[in-house]
Amino acid sequence: MLKLYNSLSRKIEDFIPKVEGKVGMYTCGPTVYSFAHIGNFRTYATADILIRTLKAQGMDVTYIMNLTDVGHLTGDNEGDADTGEDRMEKSATKEGKTAWEIADFYSQAFLDDFKKLNLTTPKLFAKATDHIQEQVDLVKRLEETGYTYATNDGIYFDTSLVKKYGELSDLDQIKEGARVEVNVQKRNPRDFALWKFSPQDTKRHMEWESPWGVGFPGWHIECSAMAMKYLGESFDIHAGGIDLKETHHPNEIAQSEAVTHKTFSKYWVHSAFMLVAGERMSKSKGNNYRLYDLEKEGYNPSHLRYLYLNAHYRQEMNFTFAALDAGRNALERLQNMMVKWQESEKGATEYEEKFFEALNDDLNAPQAVAVMWDMVKADIPDGEKLHSLLKMDEVFGLGLREYYEKVAGKPVDVPAEVQELIEMRQMARKNKQYIQADHLRNKVKKLGFDIQDTEKGIEIKKIASE
Ligand code: AMP
Ligand code: ZN
């Protein structure tokens, strides 16, 4: 059984889904105002390993991820994400495009990298701008139950009305006003915007009519509205980066549970940051790498995936090219070994058990990698190793089956004339005409091909030209 650290209880708990065998899971996706970096993707890779671990053990997972294409203001996730400029509109001004064009462009770039990294495709990438009505409806429900109030820049949620507000968060006080003006009309520092009014003097690219006036939704409301629409008012797992634990996720909980009186998500999973030289990798610090930057240097996405596996998801991970090289070397060693193996029907059960034990222990991926290497080095038949390795890779997602099929399974392109000689040689051997068989083998050799007899039949190799 899977045991998972739940940020809400701050304990490792048994994972028991609401409905046996079925899991509803939501991950907060990117704000699509610029390129996602490999730190962001560490968070999505953590969610991916969790989904794959559940699926490999027979769970049916419904997975939803949002794309924030409106409403995320320039404040950070530790408190002032409701203030400042709209990230999308700011980026649009900078690039001389509309916010809609920015959203399209960076969403596509994100989806391309997501695919390259072999991350499990959600049932839906839910865009905030496709769900404005759902967000307005949710704010209306909150208004009816008395949780909202208006200021001159928007409709706010009154956090003082929620007894357990901020249960998830470790912040005593938000860093309100750290970078921008404090909204003096806010009743409590941690109150947050549900709906923001468009400024009177400027025309925004993205704005909608609402019962409270023309404007746009606050950042937090989209996740509550979309998660509840697709997963129900109460579901199993909500995931995201560690910073979201402080403000975004407590706000999602507050506004959802205020209307439903049900536990919004049972388990909260937060992935630790990727660092560079000890500092958080971030867009604003300019210390970030994209998948593109790694590809340009000759790495491929599976090297990065291997690197991610080397640290437990709740531990910070320092990115270095030396570590990425080590990951690449290890993966290449593994690939070179396995292409020589032929898969057998059964696997190395004992190692598979240990492998899932490691993952079921709060997704201990580094331990699962160690089990995999123990198996690869063990004195057991190669065919069994390959069988289990490919099963393990259903969780690791390193694309080993595709690699195997591409490299080991690819027949050598043999010309018809050579093929005919090979068949004649096989026939001669069958008839025990060994001299004739050797003669034919030499003929084949002269044409540039080598025949090797193995336990499983013959292997044809092209002789490298000098
Ligand atoms: P953003 O696009 O800034 O909203 O971030 C998207 C996701 O990536 C969020 O879940 C963040 O918590 C996460 N994230 C941001 N920076 C990092 C980092 N350096 N390492 C891991 N995850 C991060
Ligand atoms: Zn969210």
The span between the termini is 57 Å
Global structural class: alpha/beta
> What is the total number of structural domains?
3
Estimated helix fraction:
40-55%
CATH architecture tag of the largest domain = 3-Layer(aba) Sandwich
Largest sheet: 5 strands, parallel
How many individual β-strands? 16
The proportion of residues in beta strands is 15-25%
CATH topology (fold) name of the largest domain: Rossmann fold
Which molecules are bound besides the chains? adenosine monophosphate, zinc ion
Rg result: 28 Å
Mean pLDDT: 92
Shape: elongated
The multimeric state of the shown protein is single chain
CATH superfamily of the largest domain: HUPs
Which blocks of ≥5 consecutive residues have pLDDT under 50? none
Quickly describe the structure.
This protein is of the alpha/beta class.
Keywords:
alpha/beta; binds zinc ion; five-stranded parallel sheet; Rossmann fold; binds adenosine monophosphate; Isoleucyl-tRNA Synthetase, Domain 1; four-stranded antiparallel sheet; single chain
